[in-house]
Each structure stands twice: as structure tokens, then as C-alpha cells.
Specification:
Number of strands: 10
Strand content: 25-35%
Radius of gyration: 20 Å
Number of helices: 5
Distance between the termini: 30 Å
Structural class: alpha+beta
Order of helices and strands: HEEEHEEHEEEHHEE
Number of domains: 2
């Protein structure tokens, strides 16, 4: 550990999301990664970490954008190592209930959307500096997730007023840990010195061009790859490592 005076008091502050609004998915992963002998909801400077393992590594479960973690993870990493756990729904089952107290859903359906490791960049694009912090690692959890919704008329117009009230972890397919910067070469299917574009990455990785563009933006910020110039309006990239 970096600091023998590492705070681990179970004290709530305004910097904690608290457990009242915590989803089942978040809670399950928090306890799973904090592990036996670890502590959940611990004070660290101005913030409350989701947990700290017996070995002294902070655990932060983040299901959405990494933007809210910028200040928090920077401060946590000044005390000890930090691992950000980011679940990605490979398959999502949607259950719709009449009320949040109802035990059986009105109906259940499979979402046509399928996630992959590339979804990491949807979250990381808002905080590409996090992997550059010393002692910070990111672990993505590729899982099947059940999303519970209720017909309360308060939800998004896209869902016709149906609200999401919980998410549950159904099963885990695999997890991928990005501990050092070179681990992110996992996303670059090109040899060192080979030039490529977002279109070529999209083609070779079999992903949407928009996803390729997000990935290249983040990886450039992280200095995993570099821009060498433009061909017309298209950026040319190169892998140096």
C-alpha cells in the first residue's frame, strides 16, 4: 500500500452514492470484487469507495460513464491501487412489471442489442486520462444482465414512460483486466509501424465505424497509438508499440 494511514472508516459523506439507490448489479459486483476479508463502503479522503480488498486495493464499480470517477479515482489512487469494475451486457433480458412490488413480470423479452469489450469506450471516452494514473486498472465484466422495468409513466419517452428500477447480474461470460497501458493493444489488430484508419479498424475488428472512432480517440489520448497525418479528411493512425 502507498500510505500506512489509509482511511477505511465506514462513514458516509456527500461524496457517496449510498446503498439506497444501489442496483442489484452494482451490489453483487461490489461484494464479489471486494472479496472475503474486504470492507464495503469505506471512507477515503473526501470520498466513499465502493470497497477495499483484504490486500488493500480499492474497488469502484461503474456501470455507466467514467466521467463521475475523474476526481474520485485520482484521489483514491493517491492512497492505494484502484480497480474499476465495468460490467458490459453481452445479452440483456428485459422484464416489465406492473409495480416495483410485483413479484412476477407482465412480460419478458430479449434485447436485440448485444455488447462486447468495445463498449468500454462508450464509458472511457469521457475520462481517457484514468488509465494513465499510477496504480489504476480497469476490469470489464462481460455478462448477461436482467433489466427490470415498471409501467409508472415516469420513464423515458423512448421507453414510452416505462422506468428502469433495477438491474441484476444473471451470469458472467468472462472478465478482461487492463492493468498496464500495453494491455490496451488488445483493441489494435495491427502490427507495430502499420498505418490504418478508423474505416480499416472497423472492417478488421468487425465493429461499427462510430465505435472505431471512439476507440481511436481514447487510445490516442492514452498514447497507445499516434496520428501521423491526414489523407483527405481521414486521420491516419499508427501503432508504435
Amino acid at each position: 500500500m502507498k500510505n500506512d494511514s489509509l482511511p477505511v472508516k465506514q462513514k458516509k459523506t456527500k461524496k457517496s452514492i449510498g446503498t439506497k439507490n444501489e442496483s442489484s448489479l452494482h451490489k453483487t459486483l461490489k461484494h464479489q470484487y471486494t472479496g472475503f476479508g474486504g470492507i464495503s463502503e469505506v471512507e477515503a479522503g473526501e470520498f466513499i469507495a465502493d470497497g477495499i480488498t483484504k490486500a488493500g486495493e480499492y474497488i469502484e464499480v461503474q456501470t455507466g460513464s467514467f466521467a463521475p470517477l475523474k476526481k474520485k479515482v485520482k484521489e483514491l489512487s493517491s492512497f492505494a491501487k484502484v480497480r474499476i469494475i465495468h460490467p458490459i451486457a453481452v445479452k440483456k433480458t428485459i422484464e416489465v412489471y406492473k409495480t416495483t412490488k410485483t413479484k412476477k413480470p407482465l412480460y419478458r423479452r430479449k434485447s436485440p442489442l448485444k455488447g462486447s469489450a468495445w463498449k468500454l469506450f462508450d464509458a472511457l471516452i469521457y475520462a481517457p486520462e484514468l488509465p494513465l494514473l499510477k496504480g489504476v486498472s480497469i476490469e470489464i465484466v462481460l455478462a448477461d444482465i436482467t433489466e427490470k422495468r415498471v409501467k409508472d409513466g415516469k420513464g423515458s419517452w423512448r421507453r414510452k414512460g416505462i422506468s428502469i428500477f433495477d438491474r441484476e447480474l444473471s451470469s458472467i461470460h468472462e472478465s478482461i483486466l487492463f492493468k498496464k497501458l500495453s494491455d490496451y493493444l488488445f483493441f489494435i489488430p495491427f502490427k507495430p509501424g502499420e498505418e490504418f484508419t478508423s474505416s480499416l479498424l472497423s472492417l478488421r475488428a468487425k465493429i461499427k465505424k462510430e465505435t472505431a472512432q471512439k476507440a481511436l480517440y481514447v487510445l490516442t489520448k492514452m498514447k497507445i497509438i499516434n496520428r501521423t497525418g491526414k489523407k483527405g479528411k481521414t486521420w491516419i493512425y499508427i501503432r508504435d508499440r
